[in-house]
Prior knowledge:
There is one protein chain. The chain has ten helices and ten strands. α4 (173-189) packs across α5 (196-203). β5 (50-56) and β6 form a beta hairpin. A six-stranded antiparallel sheet has the order 1-2-9-4-7-10, with helices on one face. A four-stranded antiparallel sheet has the order 3-8-5-6, with no helix packed on it. The N and C termini lie far apart (48 Å). Helix content is 44%, strand content 22%. By secondary structure, it is α+β, with helices and mostly antiparallel strands. The radius of gyration is 20 Å and the shape is globular.
Amino acid sequence: MSNVIFSIFPNEGFVDLKLYQYGREACDPGHSFGPARRNHFLFHYVLNGCGTLHANTNQYDTNTFHIRSGQGFMIFPHQINTYIADETHPWEYIWLEFDGLRVQTLLDAAGFSLASPVYHDHSKTLRDQMAQEMTYIVDHRDASPFHLIGHLYLFLDYLMRSVEPAGLTAGSELRDSYIHEAITYIEKNFQNDISIEDIAKVLGLNRSYFGKIFKKALGKTPQHFLMQYRMIKAAELIKLSSMPLADIGNAVGYPNPLHFSRAFKTIHGISPREWKKEHGGK
């Protein structure tokens, strides 16, 4: 029988980053889990051995990934997946299930996607520090929620720094600079009536070329990133303020309440009103 350590996080009163459950398992040969869906992001890091992940990339296609010690894999919310321990060298892995308003953006920047869920590091030192943070969380289940969330932030920091930036290579410093400048512009002007053309103009780029390099770097269009950033800010305002929803929509660049509600549901899966009830906004 597999040797399993499993814990459920005792507090979900966090918005930007939440921890749901975590554990470690030394699997028996051929041990499998799935097909299954998760409601949140689930990251496995393989400590020893190897195994296979079968994961849906869309409604019809499933990819197979062979994963060994020192690698890991990300499972996405609502994705159908099955993972199986090798018959000869079954894996032992450690896992964290987490979510939050900013997680998708972070994972996009790290290069994780439905089609590319496997963790490959470029720094053994950072990889080992990431694994140490995961182990710390699993081994300190009785620590306070804030203490564990602090180590979850450290885990994500090491995860992000141990992988190559998505879509960027050694000779792409200029493109990297454009993307950084574009994100900075969005952060400072998201509440205004800005367009992708405006951003491209500030950068001195053709709109089409800007859209191409942005999507290559972050895995999403500038339009989607702008909407996502605005809806993250909207969720923060709903949680932390007593502003009417119409005023919050206007504050994040959506003066039309219907358009605001549609955009919010596109990003968060529920309406602003439902989100406020669920997350206890003021």
